[in-house]
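Q: I have 155 residues here and want to know how they pack in 3D. Can you give me a structure?
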Amino acid sequence: MESQIIELLGRNRLIDELLRAGLEVALPIRDRGIDLIAYADLGPRIMQFSAVPIQMKACSECTFSLDAKYAKFPNLLIAHIWHIDSPQDEVTFAMKYDEALVIADAMGWTKTASWKKGYYTNTHPGSKLRDLLEQHRMNAEKWRQKVLGAVHTVD
């Protein structure tokens, strides 16, 4: 599948997930490393406006990567969407840069020549990587937690 199509499908999948979680979405005009912004404005359970920038990585297979250039964005979520061309198998993992760095370190990537250049990618995730990613598998409630945080809501 063409890379532009994968990007469009990934962004639309991500927007769909966020809207289904009761969140709002804004698309930046320029591409400076942030693909979209998920936010919640004032509502019955929301104490204050909350927003997070998201960098999306969509692929038709299973790829996990980390680029040191994203460390400069405070609160950036990196969302990896796998199997974008197979709706029944699609899955999204999302985490902050620091959380992704913990995974990269646990996998031993931060000791590689590739990481010294600031980037590492894995196109064949084994069971160890899949296990590390599982806690970051997204659903509607996890998206709300990531965007709102526990201190921003009331019951």
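Q: Anything worth noting?
A: The CA atoms of residues 1 and 69 lie 27 Å apart. The chain has one domain: 3-148.
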